[in-house]
Amino acid sequence: xxxxxxxTDKLTKRFGDFVATDAITFEVYAGEIFGFLGANGAGKTTxxxxxxxxxxxxxxxxxxxxxxxxxxxxQIKKNIGYMSQKFSLYEDLTVRENITFFGxxxxxxDAQIDEKSEVLIRQLGLDQEAKKLVGSxxxxxxxxxxxxxxxxxxxxxxxxxxxxxxxxPVTRRQFWDLIYDAAGRGITVFVTTHYMDEAEYCNRISMMxxxxxxxxxxxxxxxxxxxxxxxxxxxxxxxxxxxxxx
Length: 246
Prior knowledge:
Blueprint: E1 4-15, E2 18-29, E3 33-38, H1 44-51, E4 59-64, E5 67-68, H2 73-78, E6 80-83, H3 95-105, H4 110-124, H5 139-150, E7 157-161, H6 169-184, E8 188-193, E9 204-209, E10 212-217, H7 219-225, H8 231-243
Parallel strand pairs: 3-8, 3-9, 6-7, 7-8
Antiparallel strand pairs: 1-2, 1-4, 4-5, 9-10
GO molecular function: ATP binding; ATP hydrolysis activity
Pfam families: ABC_tran
Keywords: ATP-binding, Nucleotide-binding
């Protein structure tokens, strides 16, 4: 994990007088599972949208897979996968139709789409549901399908925005198994979450408080730094420090 695939320097986004992300600086390495943690409204989604080329920064610098977020957004989009906070597939299409549709968008050939469809459907255990409308599936299956489609084209980086929100603990664990598998194939995973226990699943994490990056390290090192037994305790200390102006 020596190759840097995401690099930011004082990346900032303002909406009028409101500073959504304030001069955030960090690096993410190839094949890493990088957690971007914080409470709702901490600036996580705004930062991710800038990194995906969906939102222009107000100031600062950033490169994704070697491409500049200001000048090369189209190249960025070709090298990443993205799963939004809201379910991102078409509920009025079947499972197989969604895979075919997005495979075409990603530029895969018909033969590649057919091959990947069979593998994906089998891996997710959706053989009996392949011809069903996605809207009829339980939320957990929808989320796992959306993630699998987001990496159908084997991107260098996949961005996941609150991917396990609203699903049960068992499904959350299954979803993280998919993340581990993707990282094992060399895909860098950048994941936002407000579930502090999920920080334990990441190689490194950053912690956002009110648009400011307050910490960046491995979960183990952060717990040692704050003499904490859990990431919830670490976040509590960071949030309390922010209130005191530290």
